[in-house]
Amino acid sequence: MLRAWLIYLSKAGWAQNLVSKWSVARRVASRFVAGNELSDAIRVIKELNSQGIFVTLDHLGESTTNLNEAEQATQAIIDMLNAIDEENVQANASIKLTQIGLALDKERCEQNLRRILSVAKEHGIMVRIDMEDSPWVDATLELYFKMRQEGLDNVGVVIQSYLRRAEADVRRLMEEGARVRLVKGAYKEPPEIAFPKKQDVDANYDRLTRMLIDGAKAHGAPLVSEDGKWPPIPAIGTHDEARIEYAKEYSQSVGLPKRAIEFQMLYGIRRDLQRALAKEGYPVRVYVPYGTEWYPYFMRRLAERPANLWFFISNFFRK
Known about the structure:
This protein has 13 helices and 8 strands. The protein has helices spanning 2-11, 13-19, 23-29, 38-50, 67-87, 106-122, 137-149, 166-174, 198-218, 241-253, 271-279, 295-304, 307-316, and strands at residues 54-59, 91-95, 127-129, 155-160, 180-183, 234-237, 262-266, 284-290. The two termini are 30 Å apart.
């Protein structure tokens, strides 16, 4: 119930207007968000790189309300890609299609995506398309495959294990050795679309992990690039230690090299686990968001870990 309420609040304009004005909310959000400016994000990337950790950088924003906003978001992402190249940091990028116009004009979104991927390809950077809630899954995968067909192969995608359709989607993606980040999913979905029980989501996560690892083996087990701009095929995006251990054990059982599987986590969460995996020799990539549109992202992080909400409340009422 609490998770559903927090997800609702993440999309509620009235709540965003209210909470965004609270200084304590911004302070707590700073645990999960690098800062408002691109320079803040570059500083964080360099800190993480110094610890042997890669980054995927995300300029926050989603569900733009007009095409001018979508154009501005597209340019901000291009600026981000240029900065990654100019600063020579070990990072790639993550984007959301609704941020660049998918909900407004699919053709314009396609044009914006093509511009982004073209700039990224010039810099040798892979761009990951984040998966959003279920109404956008088909359109997201359609644009992903279209870009690949056009030769813009520096694109990856995200699959959510709580969706019942995920197994079929992964099977299709593994036919071409797609680079896939596997996550559990952080949106509220009806039970006919998503597994409502945690144990079913976890079981599907492990099933999809096997499929990604098998797919990596079938496509020659590509390793993470030394410059951190290209990940291997399987990106295991979770803080759940049981899921991580399962992925490690299965990959070892089939002989997948450590550098051919990547573990991805969110900025500010389980830093101890990030460092431990990196010390074991596994590629670790941290999802680092930045920008002024931090509210929806922050609320979804609270929904994933409601214990963070109590920290927020205790600080709000502290004198």
